[in-house]
Amino acid sequence: MRNCRFRTAAAVTACSLALLSLPGGSEPRPDRFDTVVIDPGHGGDDHGARGARGLLEKDLVLDVTLRLAKRLEARGFDVALTRRDDRFVPLEERTSIANDARGDLFISIHANASRVQNARGIETFFVSLEASDEAAQRIANLENRAFGGSDVVAKIAEDPLLGILGDLIATEYLMESQEFAGLVQGKLANSRSRGVKQAPFVVLMGVQMPAALVEIGFLTNPADERGLHSSTERDRLADGLAGAVGEFAERYDARRGAAGTRAGPRDGGVAAQ
Fold first, then answer.
1. What does the alpha-carbon distance between residue 213 and residue 138 come to, in Å, rounded to a whole number?
2. Which of 24, 205, 222, 236 lies 20 to 30 Å from 11, alpha-carbon distance?
């Protein structure tokens, strides 16, 4: 159902009927992986986390995003960004950018914060209405706050129809989201891995593609913040994320019978917003 872009229950039904009514003999072309949507968290008046040395999450994640975009474009992927400068982008706009780009993968990049100063490391999330643990729920609450996310999650939890539709959408991409999250952890975390987790991040709920949210380190940890100030560490993060995307794309294409040599850098591509 990746090519059916739905926003309402009626749209889901219409899309399903359209798929069921396809002529039995029609052979759709293989669905090749080509478009990545990158979402740098926060922006504008929403600074996100702040380190003791003054590093702001919104600035850090935008810089890592731009580095990652260049690497993906060099590999021949089309890239769409939910923002490319210091401005706040509402939840609905981020979702629309991703879905309108018909993305094959959505990556939301963030940096962590904790009252426990020695908390550090990298963790990657895929979406679930229930968090895998209390710490994951706390992080989701912090990241959702800018979007009024608690209200969104509560409405889904309280409305049986929305809950069923949410489960259907999430299940379609659940295994691939989990797979990509595992690839990210393998490429980035080294000895500082905090693992792959699930949590109700609202920015992941509305996108109709495999999706993961990556917390690239703790700005509240002196060692992590020191590293994240470094261009070398930011390049390492961008290289690791690009590597995870490349490996995921190969698996994605192989599953859909579209495996083959990928073209080099493309002219143009999906315009970043």
1. 14
2. 24
